[in-house]
TrEMBL record:
<keyword id="KW-0805">Transcription regulation</keyword>
<dbReference type="InterPro" id="IPR051912">
    <property type="entry name" value="Alkylbase_DNA_Glycosylase/TA"/>
</dbReference>
<dbReference type="Pfam" id="PF06029">
    <property type="entry name" value="AlkA_N"/>
</dbReference>
<keyword id="KW-0227">DNA damage</keyword>
<keyword id="KW-0479">Metal-binding</keyword>
<keyword id="KW-0489">Methyltransferase</keyword>
<keyword id="KW-0862">Zinc</keyword>
<dbReference type="InterPro" id="IPR037046">
    <property type="entry name" value="AlkA_N_sf"/>
</dbReference>
<dbReference type="InterPro" id="IPR003265">
    <property type="entry name" value="HhH-GPD_domain"/>
</dbReference>
<dbReference type="InterPro" id="IPR010316">
    <property type="entry name" value="AlkA_N"/>
</dbReference>
<feature type="domain" description="HTH araC/xylS-type">
    <location>
        <begin position="94"/>
        <end position="192"/>
    </location>
</feature>
<keyword id="KW-0238">DNA-binding</keyword>
<keyword id="KW-0234">DNA repair</keyword>
<dbReference type="Pfam" id="PF12833">
    <property type="entry name" value="HTH_18"/>
</dbReference>
<dbReference type="InterPro" id="IPR009057">
    <property type="entry name" value="Homeodomain-like_sf"/>
</dbReference>
<keyword id="KW-0808">Transferase</keyword>
<dbReference type="InterPro" id="IPR035451">
    <property type="entry name" value="Ada-like_dom_sf"/>
</dbReference>
Length: 534
């Protein structure tokens, strides 16, 4: 390797064993640069394993590209799950990677990214180059290239439109980058076709794609969680077949306008359809879907670590592949969580529906009910109210004790003014501290919102009533037991949560015995549980 810091973070022998066994669990966690061919691959590439003296390993695709390697056409290394490494740290590199994946460089430039992280652009570039093998511009370029490849192979857009939609400043820059990374012209890359060769050409403003994830994936947990936290008119979870298939749909505000995002998870992949999309937001939308479903997690490593504790072994065995759901809209998550405090699920739904009806904008899509997948809400899709709208009009719309209403409006004002910056690049500790400083926000709310917004895998929801109940059922003292679960305490919290709720929610039962479609219908009708309040 050209950078000693990178070499110290990857053990050659361990990486080479993963490559020799074509272990797909490591796809996205590092990349293989082959000197004799000048290409870089994912660890599970089906090509003949190169000799050890001919390879070295890098943490990011951008590092391989910086060193002059092009992407392997056979294994498509840009189409792999992201590395869970970036969610595990509060260090600058991890936080920067989360923001770059969310399109921060395209929206605010390197200076803006550095400012959000609290450093100078020069220091940011120096640290990322030393630790990851590439600076912020190169890392963003790799993301743009991945977005461009999807648009080239999954849409009929012109190459000029793709160039600007992907974030490139010129068609020439786009052409040069595609040739450098893929070894092909954009036209030739389109001629080769998509890995999904039976894909239907997308309509204007629409993209359909498949996202990879690491197996196993607990589908029942994701379905229950998304259903329990859906805001009427903004989100919907629907059954797709009698075998338990389902889809989640959400109207979400993106940097350049709203879009309707539909996800259909399965054991092997997640099918995604994004409609009414400004194509400049494709990379951001895909990143937020991945964060919502925690698709970059390494469930085998997490489950193995937690199962090593006899107290959790049975829970992990019953629900392998449990994820920590994130959010596509951090502000919505904060406001919805605060609205749901100290009141029943039915009341929370009523208040959120009223808030959305009064202050949320109606999606101005033409026509508004042209969805070919799933049903459209009777009144059309709505967007969750902006923090600015809630800060200005919340007192008029919200009902309940004055103190609670004041707290919600205060939180919205803090987000609207930028006093609290809700984005995945935040350190969970810093965000938690800022949330706790708000009136009406206690430890449970701060922990829960920080976990979902930042994706931190090591937050113990020790103030959660359901988690506490599960611990009591198992005879656990959370204060002493949780140390053994670090750095995966967020996942431990989800296992305890699921274990306690599985008594009344059949869909959350033992994953080794798949629940029927009828079980899920009975579950959501009889006990519609929401995150408990402190």
């Amino acid at each position: 390797m050209t950078t000693s810091a990178v070499a110290r973070t990857l053990d050659f022998d361990s990486c080479y064993r993963a490559v020799s066994s074509r272990d797909a669990r490591f796809d996205g966690q590092f990349f293989v640069a082959v000197r004799t061919t000048g290409i870089y691959c994912r660890p599970s590439c089906p090509a003949q394993t190169p000799r050890p003296q001919n390879v070295h390993f890098v943490l990011t695709a951008a590092a391989a590209q910086q060193q002059g390697f092009r992407a392997c056409r056979r294994c498509a290394p840009d189409a792999v799950p992201g590395s869970p490494r970036w969610n595990c740290g509060a260090d600058m590199s991890s936080r920067a990677m989360r923001m770059i994946a969310d399109g921060a460089v395209e929206r605010m430039g390197v200076d803006g990214l550095a400012d959000h992280l609290g450093y100078t652009a020069r220091h940011l570039n120096r640290v990322l180059t030393a630790e990851l093998g590439a600076g912020p511009l190169a890392l963003a370029r790799a993301h743009r290239a991945g977005t461009a490849r999807v648009l080239i192979q999954r849409t009929t857009m012109s190459m000029a439109d793709i160039a600007f939609a992907s974030g490139f400043q010129s068609v020439r820059q786009f052409n040069d980058t595609i040739r450098d990374i893929f070894g092909l012209t954009p036209s030739r890359l389109r001629a080769l076709g998509s890995p999904v060769r039976d894909a239907v050409p997308a309509a204007l403003g629409e993209v359909t794609l498949r996202l990879a994830h690491r197996s196993p994936l607990h589908l029942g947990w994701l379905r229950w969680f998304l259903t329990a936290h859906a805001v009427d008119g903004v989100e919907a979870v629907e059954s797709t077949d009698a075998r338990g298939g389902w889809r989640h749909r959400q109207a979400v505000e993106l940097p350049h306008g709203p879009a309707l995002v539909t996800v259909e998870p399965s054991a092997s992949r997640v099918d995604v359809r994004i409609a009414h999309l400004d194509m400049r937001d494709l990379g951001v939308a895909v990143n937020r879907v991945r964060r919502l479903l925690d698709l970059d997690a390494d469930p085998v490593s997490t489950d193995s670590a937690l199962a090593a504790d006899p107290a959790l072994a049975a829970l992990v065995h019953a629900a392998p592949g449990l994820r920590v759901p994130g959010t596509m809209s951090p502000a919505q998550t904060l406001i919805a969580t605060m609205v749901g405090q100290q009141i029943s699920v039915k009341a929370a739904r009523h208040h959120l529906a009223r808030l959305t009806d009064e202050l949320g904008g109606r999606a101005q899509w033409d026509p508004p009910t042209d969805d070919v997948v799933g049903a459209t809400p009777a009144d059309g899709w709505r967007l969750f109210p902006s923090p600015e709208a809630i800060a200005e009009h919340g007192h008029r719309v919200l009902r309940g004790p004055r103190r609670r209403v004041d707290a919600i409006v205060s939180a919205a004002s803090a987000v609207a003014s930028g006093h609290i910056d809700l984005h995945p690049g935040r350190s969970s500790d810093d965000l938690r501290s800022e949330l706790l400083a708000l009136p009406g926000v206690g430890p449970w709310t701060a922990d829960y919102v920080s976990m979902r917004v930042t994706g931190d895998p090591d937050i113990m929801l020790e103030h959660d009533l359901v988690v506490r109940g599960a611990a009591a059922d198992l005879g656990l003292d959370l204060a002493s037991a949780q140390a053994a679960w670090s750095p995966w305490r967020s996942y431990a919290s989800m296992h305890l949560w699921r274990h306690r709720l599985s008594v009344s929610e059949p869909i959350l039962g033992d994953q080794t015995t798949a629940p029927s479609h009828a079980d899920h219908d009975r579950s959501t009708k009889t006990h519609f549980t929401r995150a408990p309040t402190p």
